[in-house]
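Risk register update: the risk that structure generation would not scale has been downgraded. Supporting records follow, first protein first.
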Amino acid sequence: MASISGMLAENARIYPDEIALVELKPSSGVRREITWQEFDRRVNRVCNALMGIGIHKGDKVIHWMMNSINWLVAYFGIIRTGAWAVPLSFRFTSRDFKYCAEIAEAKAIILGEEFVERVESVRCELSSIERYIIVGQNTPGEMENFDNFIACASPNRADVELDEEDGCGLYFTSGTTGAPKPILLTHRNMVCAAVTEKAHHYQRHEDNFVLLPPLYHTGAKMHWFGNLMVGGKATILTEFSPLNVFETVERERGTIVWLLVPWVHDILVALDKGELKKEDYDLSCWRLMHIGAQPVPPSLVQRWKAYFPEMQYDTNYGLSEATGPGCVHLGIENERKVGAIGKAGFNWEVRIVNERGEDVVQGEVGELIVKGCGVMKGYYKNPEKTAETIKDGWLYTGDMARMDDEGFIYLVDRKKDVIVSGGENIYPAEVEEILHSHPKIYDVAVIGVPDERLGEIPVAIIDVRPGETLTEFEVTAFCEQNLARYCRPRRIIFDKVPRNPTGKIEKPKLRQKFGTCLR
């Protein structure tokens, strides 16, 4: 089985002078591009430079950057050494970074200059990281500039044997406990994602995939793997706006765009208001728009199809433990079933089971479980959680679902309390833990309530300590200092927090009380 690193090398051999990647920054007018041969040689330089400082198979290299051509160059360079790339969310705080670095025991980090301050604030507390390599113009003392680091390295392929079961990516996600869980993905998992994506969306060499969502996710990047498999171009659009999307598709002749629900909502609002006019742009090249990362309202798709009746559409379902999207998908031929997440993806099996792991009767609600070559190797350093999640090869997703008489699957609810807001997972327990540290807060619960644009927003219900007074302004200021922006509660409610006899928060009661009145 070929590796994704091998796919890149093959594209460099077959299409050496064709453009592989375009990077756009509309606000500054920057446009960069790189051919397949240049891409491959630059990846080789990263690989050889890392091996030159002692990075070898099984080592971990943290990868903390904003979307760019260099993001993908660094990623492929790391995995080509046989080491594991450890991509971090650009929303992570210093506290998150320190936690992930300690779990991974990373030997090096490649980071964008945007993250230097966050790294420096905890650097003295980290012992495993030996080299700090900065991508950007400003390189602090005791750190190395990325371009200088790779400048003298060989552009030729290093002789590193990669087995399909070797680890290559350590992706941090979280459960409702709030502690990020490191998910170990293999080279086989990555190839599975590429094969599945190509089968679902019929990528061709002529396709140009417009990349918008964060590359640290097991999401858009894995969708792009379908293009990688056929040597198709990608355009990395680093700044979202409805105008940017339309201009990029027209100028770069984009054919496939994967969007999040809020972005689709924003485009539709701009069209409805006349701020954006479809007839002003030549979008005839745009053949497929697909959505994932959170539940998709059928009305949203119906509104989109009213503007773009000939454009193909697909809904994608997945999770990091299944190497991102694809284990279930609607299929572009099944638009009549919008509202369902679809059927088993290519090379995947699905079941809906009860608490004993037995198949439920068709139409009944149970837990969705999936099986395929994209199932993670496991939770790194957590065999107990791995055994709880993977049973006889079946991955238990934690999502409750039902199946109709045609075999289409509909999500009913999440088994856990994760809030999905704008495609990002927010973990209530983590937010609650931070808020509990406020001296005036006696008790707190965080729930998700429906939001037209983001899908859900976090709301904090706060019980103030007796004898204290606390204002919404004080809570907001506290959150700004201690929580990443996307995790901060959008609304604050002062009320009692109901708990059951065992001390667990009764969140269903809170959702019933506040979930509808806040819409």
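Supporting record for the second protein:
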Amino acid sequence: MCSGQPGFLRNVGAQLVGKCRLLECYSLTEAAQMVQLHRPSVVLIDLRQGFPRQFDRSWAMAHNSNTTFLIIVTNISELDQSHVPAEIADRVVHVQVDVATGDLSHVVMATEGLLADGRQRIAVAVNDQNCAAYFPPEPEAGDRFSAVTPQSPLDSAERTNVAEGPLTHNRIADIPVTGDSSVSGQPSIADRYRTRTPILRQMLERLEVAAKHDVTMLLIGETGVGKTHLAKLIHESSQRQEEPLLTVPCGALPGDLIESELFGHVKGAFTSAHAAKDGKFLAAGRGTILLDEIDVLTPEQQVKLLRVIEKGLYEPVGSNETLKVEARIIAASNLELQPLVEQGRFRPDLYYRLNTLSFNILPLRKRLPDIEPLARFFVHLHAQKHGIDVVEICDQFINSLVSYPWPGNVREMENAIRSAVIYSNGGNLTIDTLPPNIVEGAAGPGNDGSVASFFGGKRGASLGNRIELTEKDIIEQALLNNSFSRTKTAKQLGISRVTLYNKMKKYDMMPKG
């Protein structure tokens, strides 16, 4: 059952980034297991348009954990207080959302209020098909899920302000929600891209600003990181969202047909041109065209592309007629273009034209905070698609995913999760359901040295023993492994905190803001 607002988790979760650790589950069954396993202090459940059985299962969660508080989110008048069992009524907070505005600000306030009330853990369940659990960063251990330096959930001033509301009373609190909020409306690109990695979120915030303007953009990232998906998000965030989005996989086309695919051709332009054909630039109209793997273009093709970008003009193959491009161009490449320029394989003028608004997408192995949420999302997606009821995801399953460097990135992970769901035994996802190479850490080929450095960081290798790898990759991975604790990172790398600080400063790795 869907509430009609599938962005609930992303909207609310975005407001809690940095205040707690995020885990996700995608059914009330799994949420109930998480309550039993972790004994969270707070459970947030989105039951807008919910069925009676979903309310009953929610009450059962509270019954099974007498230290757990529930925040129940419904549309106005969907829940009568008398329907809440009396024995748990003092642990239930009811937040009513105005369906006309969809404003979730009071949901965030309620959650922060209970976090601020001295509670160490919070679990969040969102609908019967979209659940998640939040846990604040542990102050001691190097938590693999924490994307930022651990911090207290709320400072004393915030704690005082929130505690003045109705959440401080041990009774059900009906909170109508009206008006506008920063969490209402379309989620940000960072949220729709499903990332909680601070560095990547910062980049996507810059990208979202550019997406709203009519400018050419360049996406750089390894195969499988989601460049096509990101291009779709850019298109949806622009004024062209009602127009078509076309993708041209340049690397999959024979070199002599790329120009025809892009610009079209007239009849008889070449041997097999038995009829005229419109190119993708014409077919895209006023929409968006994604040119994937532009690094394969020949120098002559690069010249023509540069003319299209700068002047918006081109001629179909075999024609003298000049046409004007109205589509927005997004270019993408699996490879960094600067080395190709230095090797004479990519034109400097095109490189400098594209590099003005270029965005590098981190590989999955450098986005450790994203691995578990993405994995649970794919579990839910493919369990639904294949009609399999997944009832449990064991810790070793998640640990194996986090400990693998994913040279194929998100695409490789989704394929692995699909396989695991298909081979799940009785709905239980264990390491035995994963492909053997992932459990064994036998990563496939990759064009980035950080695949090897990933294992170096995991095994605690010192910088002196890994001189063949770049310092930046090793330090970056070690910081992720140690939840950005400089003390633990320096100890793992066998260097002093001062040395680590200087190297982070040298490689522009210091936290921004």
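The chain has four domains: 8-177, 209-360, 364-440, 450-506. On this basis the risk owner (M.S.) recommends closing the item.
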